[in-house]
Design goal:
heterodimer; A: 196 residues; mainly alpha; three-stranded mixed beta sheet; 7 helices; 42% helix; B: 355 residues; alpha+beta; 50s Ribosomal Protein L5, Chain: A; five-stranded antiparallel beta sheet; 8 strands; 12% strand
Chain lengths: 196, 355
């Protein structure tokens, strides 16, 4: 609007200066700034359309921890209850033990099993082996357990012990413990390789 | 004040005031014979005033009984004209030289006026209360007094005058590419990065291949999730495998959110929609146009998780629900600052972070 007014004013007074001048006094002061507004007359008319806006409702969003807030939305439901949101998703709460995939071990039976047979009792064993139920626990962690079993079936025990030794080399705990020690050796090497 | 503290001018001015003036001092107390005329006598004017209030005078009884404005209004055959002059803006803009000009868009009487904002969104309150000051603290760089930063090389390089043809050439662009990046200014209290606008864009290639129903559904879905009427766009590129010709096929739908709409959409996206995405690791750390705008995409089944689409899911043909690209434009000049802002507002990033 203001731009239009200024354009109209300059067009009406027909002076080339930006300062408003009296029509009589234009003799000496027209030599100043030569700002020319290009203002051509247009004969067409542009329809000013009313902007279209979808109807919006106020909706109350209830997050899973009970906190609420309102927002404007096109959804007509007055209340939205979310089951999964930032309060209970693991990506937003990386340190929450509740949301992590933790096993229920109230009686301590899983812990007892782990204390007796170790953590890696079925880490690398093929799952399709039919005799793995009896063989696997004896096979893995302890040599004493393997020796007791060897009285019954020597062949199976020997095979199991060989498997146990082979598995103990590449069990998960070794991998985890050796992970941090390997890294400093890799670090400078890869860094220098990158630079070159 | 001048009397309280005696100045050196006081001694000079005091005898001047005491000195006898040339004019006679008795002008005020002189009486003339014409003062006794009735027109000039003060006591007569006072005597003409009424001492009682006019409100206290009792009305005649018939006037009181006949006073009934409701009945008078009902018995009136035609309505009275409106009390105020109602301005109707012109329907057409007839150019700057026309005497009847439309009012500016900010005027409530304008035809293009959009009212609002009607609410203070939660995201905006969080930003003002917590995030802005946190970002300002995180981005603080301490310069000890007397420290002057080392001068930077000019962004546009000059030509070494090794050839006579270098004369009057325009300056060269930066090394390693012709793109002149945005200047990254230090973040001060008045330049804290904030959300500027959010663009939701959806390219529907089936709108050119099959029928326009795809575009209508995409427009309705984008309008539902964004509270904003969408614009449609024709293709600028020629994709012969999809049988899309430039300028012929309308293939895209866009909604641009600012202000209140933008904050509502952002809060809904971050708090409700993004946590529900299956196996979604976060926004890619490499996304961004290196000038502070971050883009990520949503698949059609992820768009269907928006509460507005979910509440009325049967309205949309399931295969026609579009995917979309969401661009978050921030006022940051570098992607690093934009990512800092967005992660403070709850958008997770994953992978290699490229700044």
């Amino acid at each position: 609007m203001s731009m239009h007014i200024s354009l109209r004013r300059t067009a009406a007074t027909l002076t080339t200066t930006t300062t408003p001048l009296l029509p009589g006094s234009s003799s000496s002061s027209t030599t100043g700034a030569a700002t020319t507004f290009i203002c051509s007359q247009c004969r067409h008319a542009t329809l000013l359309r009313r902007p279209k806006r979808p109807y919006t409702f106020t909706q109350l969003i209830t997050l899973s921890d009970g906190s609420t807030f309102t927002h404007r939305t096109t959804s007509p439901a007055p209340v939205y209850r979310s089951t999964r949101d930032t309060r209970n998703s693991l990506l937003w709460n990386p340190s929450s033990s509740k949301l992590m995939n933790v096993e229920e071990d109230e009686a301590g039976r899983l812990a007892a099993f782990r204390a007796r047979f170790g953590r890696s009792w079925d880490a690398n064993s093929p799952a399709a082996e039919p005799s793995s139920i009896s063989a696997a626990p004896g096979a893995k962690g302890e040599k004493t357990a393997a020796d007791v079993k060897a009285d019954e079936e020597a062949a199976r025990a020997a095979r199991a012990q060989a498997q146990a030794e082979q598995e103990e080399e590449d069990n998960l705990l070794d991998l985890i413990s050796s992970f941090g020690q390997d890294e400093p050796q890799h670090g400078p090497g890869s860094g220098s390789g990158k630079k070159k | 004040m001048a009397a309280r503290e005696p100045s050196r001018y006081l001694a000079r001015t005091l005898p001047r005031a005491i000195a006898p003036s040339a004019r006679p001092q008795t002008l005020a107390c002189r009486r003339n014979a014409s003062d006794d005329a009735p027109a000039r006598r003060l006591s007569n004017h006072l005597a003409e005033l009424e001492t009682e209030s006019s409100l206290a005078t009792p009305l005649p009884a018939d006037t009181v009984k006949s006073f009934n404005p409701v009945a008078a209004a009902k018995s009136r055959r035609a309505q009275l004209p409106r009390s105020r002059y109602q301005f109707r803006p012109p329907k057409y803009d007839r150019g700057p030289l026309h005497p009847h000009q439309p009012p500016p868009p900010s005027d409530p009487s304008s035809r293009v006026f959009v009212p609002g904002p009607f609410s203070l969104p939660r995201v905006q309150q969080t930003y003002d209360a917590a995030i802005a000051s946190d970002i300002l603290t995180l981005c603080y760089v301490h310069n000890p007094p007397g420290f002057t930063p080392p001068p930077k090389a000019p962004r546009l390089r000059e030509w070494d005058d090794s050839s006579p043809y270098h004369k009057n050439r325009p300056l060269r662009g930066p090394r390693g590419g012709d793109v002149l990046r945005l200047l990254r200014k230090p973040i001060k209290f008045n330049s804290i990065p904030e959300l500027e606008r959010i663009t939701i864009h959806s390219y529907v290639k089936q709108a050119a291949q099959e029928n326009s129903g795809w575009l209508h559904v995409a427009g309705m879905a984008v309008q539902a999730i964004s509270n904003k009427r969408v614009e449609t766009f024709k293709s600028r590129a020629s994709v012969s495998t999809w049988s899309i010709a430039p300028g012929r096929d309308t293939v895209a739908v866009k909604a641009e959110l600012r202000g209140e709409d933008m904050y509502h959409f952002f809060g809904k996206l971050v708090d409700v929609v993004l946590p529900r995405l299956k196996d979604w690791p976060g926004v890619k750390g490499t996304s961004g146009d290196s000038s502070g705008n971050i883009t990520f995409g949503l698949e059609p089944e992820q768009v269907a998780l928006f509460p507005e689409i979910e509440v009325n899911y049967d309205m949309y043909p399931p295969k026609m629900i579009p995917g979309c690209h969401i661009t978050i434009h921030t006022s940051a000049q570098a992607d690093k600052d934009a990512r800092l802002l967005l992660s403070a507002m709850g958008v997770p990033f994953h992978g290699k972070i490229v700044n």
